[in-house]
Queue: 2 jobs
Job 1
Amino acid sequence: DAPDAPTTQRTLVLVKPDGVRRGLSGEIVRRIEAKGYTLVAVELREADEALLAEHYAEHAGKPFLTPLVEFMRSGPVLAVVAEGHRVIEGFRSLAGATDPTVAAPGTIRGDLGRDWGLKVIQNLVHGSDSEESAAREIALWFPAL
Ligand code: RTP
Ligand code: MG
């Protein structure tokens, strides 16, 4: 590579079951593409318990883990791998804060999400939070990549 070539990075995005059920998959993918990121993989999936336990391993022992896994199994999720310079941070910025009530307007969660007062926060999307998480999550969801 040339010394100043942009480094590419990949992230795992999930449109969670609430997003798919509400018909927001296209709008969420649209925002990723409109930002200029490249789609590497897109697949509608029914996640099983083993996959989700692995995906959410960092939350083992937390009180919201069981309702979170139950929620994530309540319907299909759209699994997406997106690519671009600083896409991990960039998608987290597009997604907004975890709690949709306080997520900034302009973000996916701020514009489209709200707290429904359920056992676990339903906030439309997941995005990898570091290079290590992204590598681990992409290998888990898309072992062929
Ligand atoms: P994500 O992993 O989904 O991209 O979201 P995040 O980093 O903003 O949030 P994280 O702390 O990793 O939590 C994972 C997901 O668990 C649900 N959650 N519910 N108190 C609650 O009800 C609660 N806390 C976390 C959310 O769906 C959150 O996105
Ligand atoms: Mg997280």
Job 2
Amino acid sequence: MSKIGVTLIGLGPMGQAMVRKLLAAEHAVTVWNRTASRADALVDEGALRAEDVGAALAANTAIILSLTDYQAMYDILGTATDALSGKVVINLSSDTPAKTREAATWLAGHGAELVTGGVMVPSVLVGEEGAYVFYSGSRTTFDRVQPMLKVIGRPDYVGEDPALAQLYYQAQLDIFLTSLSGFLHATALLNSAGVSAASFQPYAEDNFASMSMYLGDAVKQIDSGEHPGDQASVVMMGATADHIVGASEEAGIETGLPRAVKAHYDRAIESGHGADSWTSLIERIKKP
Ligand code: NDP
């Protein structure tokens, strides 16, 4: 059986990387991009250029979108809604869960189905070992396009709600972005005493590597709602959070991040959870 053809709209770094992997796997790929010149190299490499959005949609049933946000989808597909009926739109663009659900309704109104996705690697790693993508939406529809999607990374289907893939994506980026800022803040603290980032690196690496060790017990406590703090209590860790704020003030560096962390501990202590473990902070995070 020949491989299904696919249309890819949105040729930023991600879209371009996906087109190249799909071509390498011998899928026929039709491309369209607002700035047409971004398709030139891909056409030289074997992609088919659609002259307009209507032609891009007409070329295939499977339509991958790799755009800045969901507004870009409306800006593009809104110009050719007559061509949407029967299409499977696989939107791999980032946006909020609510906007994702609205898009599913909008597409259904035009006879198309939405599969949402969040790509969990940078463009240079698309389709490489370890690359994966969260997907959600109709399972039946997803199964129709899954073999083709394997080319860009391991497809991890997370549920029927189209917003779920976005939430998983954002949860991963929530950890990633917060951790990166934490690392930079810690480095700035050491820089204030003349310590270089390179000197700190082995210790920061050790810290990141050991972080996942805590998760096994943490998820049990979070899911059960039981937070025994016999090994390390909120009061003890809150005192450390306070010391980091003090150290940051003394160093003259930005204090917003450590103050936000300290606030979690302060509120847990104020509400009588000082003897619990740090996992009980999740209740304060859920009810700001
Ligand atoms: P870019 O911002 O480089 O590309 C975005 C694409 O969207 C371009 O093709 C651009 O067209 C198009 N676009 C944006 N707004 C509009 C609009 N209003 N109308 C028409 N077209 C529009 O993004 P990336 O390729 O880096 O990323 C694409 C998606 O993948 C994003 O949602 C991003 O969050 C996600 N992602 C990116 C990663 C990365 O490492 N880059 C990693 C994981 C996910 P034009 O060329 O004309 O400007």
